[in-house]
Amino acid sequence: MASKSQRASVGLRLLSNGFIIVWVILAAFPFFWTLWGSFKVELDFFSIADWTNALTGAQTLDVYGQPFTGVGYEGAWVKEEFWRSVINTGIVCLFVVCTSLTIGTLGGYALSRSGFRYTFWLLITALIFRAMPPITLVAGYLLPFFEWNVWGILPTTIIVLVAINQPFTLWMLHSFFQNIPKELDESAKVDGCTQFQAFRHVIIPVMWPGVITTGLFSFLLAYNDFAVTSMLLSEDNRTMVPKIAAFLGTTYTEGNVMFAVAAVVSATAPLFILVMFFQRQIVSGLTQGAVKG
Amino acid sequence: MLLFIALPILSVLLQSVHTPHEAVLITSESCGPFGCSENTTIDHDATRKLKSTEPMGRFVGLNIYFDRAHLAVDQVSDAWRTTDNFSTFFGEISDLPFYRAMGFTLTYTFTVTPLLIILGLMIALSVNSLHRHLKGLVIFFSLLPMIVTPLIGSLILFWMFDSRGILGSFLQWLAQDPDLSLKASTLHTWIMLIIYGVWHGAPFAFVVFYAGLQTLPQDQIESAQIDGASRWEQVRFVVIPHLMPLVTFVALIQLMDNFRVFEPIVGFNAEAHATSLSWIIFNDLGGETRQLSAAATTSVMTILGVAILLSPVLLRAWRDFKEKK
Lengths: 293, 325
Known about the structure:
Number of domains of chain A: 2
Largest sheet of chain A: none
Largest interface: A-B, 87 and 93 residues
CATH architecture of the domain at 103-270 in chain B: Orthogonal Bundle
Structural class of chain A: mainly alpha
CATH superfamily of the largest domain in chain A: MetI-like
Helix content of chain B: over 70%
Distance between the termini of chain A: 29 Å
Shape of chain A: globular
Oligomer: heterodimer
Helix content of chain A: over 70%
Strand order of the largest sheet of chain B: 1-4
Number of strands of chain B: 4
């Protein structure tokens, strides 16, 4: 609680609140604008005549008799088979999260309990991987993948995404496990557990918060990736983001940007929900690195 | 795991010193009634055989590094010799793809990073003085630009900046120029990309600084007040020094992220005016002719760039590590 002397003057309060309002509008307005516009026809979304058309939907009213239309969504989901990419994204995200968490928890636990100084090297690799554009690695993967004939399928992409993500996951979980006191597994071992049993019955029940945070970040990485998925997947196996990029290639010529707009809104919706439910974990995950680093 | 880290880097290195085989040519002489002529045909069998025995291609050493698409040593030295002052020299250099990309990447990195740190700090300070119930809501909306897929976020902004979109129309009205299009000029495109970069990166800085403000020791603020510090002086001499390690952290992360700027260029369709190293690689890899070796060369140079960027941090970490031992 701020003491009385801490309280700011009215002018300053107004200034800072006004600033916050401006920022919130800056941050959120583009999303709502696009959501609103996605139910219009293209002439309203990109209106040359009058910008209020985009709000009222004058052209949409002319064409469909009502100010909202789902044509963009229908075109994207049915005609362009966007649902296929949604399923692909689901598969990729699920497997990336599961695999990297499995390796991450086991590896992170082992590293945090071993006496050897892995920490430095782990941190360095995590840093380097954070810094390197994933596309530089893709350039290295492509030729062997062509040679082995595994290019273009989902499992290859999943493996590559896991590999890119792994150092970061390991580091995050490692620092999380270090916060769990060693005495916890020692007491379990005194009670007659083996090392693995100690992990299974003592550590797993208390590690969920860290695992969820790390899982969220792996999910975001897999979901948001464009460089790897667009290079490594064939046309039928595309996930959402490269699919949207591909829409742009075709739709600009067809004059139907609304497919892409609808697809963008569809792809943003899950992230919206994710932030709504996991805001706390995301914030703590972001700051954890800062406090430790 | 080591396999997946070390092998691609190795593979990139190897590919960068090779180039695709030239087709095997057979020269045959065919003589007709009007004298003999030489015919050159491609021996497909031999070419295929060569390709299958050595899939990497010919070894060319560092040649690719020095060709026009990359370091362009010849062109640069040529420009150095023929031009007499620096501005024309830089003008000529910036036509070369590699230096053009480098120029944009560096400008982007070093403008976006400070801007988003300042913006993030301002947001954090203002949010901190907000009422408790509003904070959650504001944080929720603030997180959106960061969490959203970079490509999608840039598309959303791009559609608004389009000359027929809302911001584009607004700017036209502001400038009283109905033909104003932000896509047409290099400067405007760069500004657009930088605005996107700040919009995308500021939430991260905000969240980190906000968390830092929660750990701010209240007694220091109070003693500063007793000493008669104004609000601005409190921020300047107590809050900012307290947040300094976090500023370094954010700057480091954002330098790395902005150095690999790639998706906004695709989203903003800005290839004509702004390219980055990542985009060059993407461009070489995609398309009909997959120029693997050219892409690999750029990759190696990007990795080197990252290494140079990171080297102070790595050195410091190494020293800390040694001391601990």
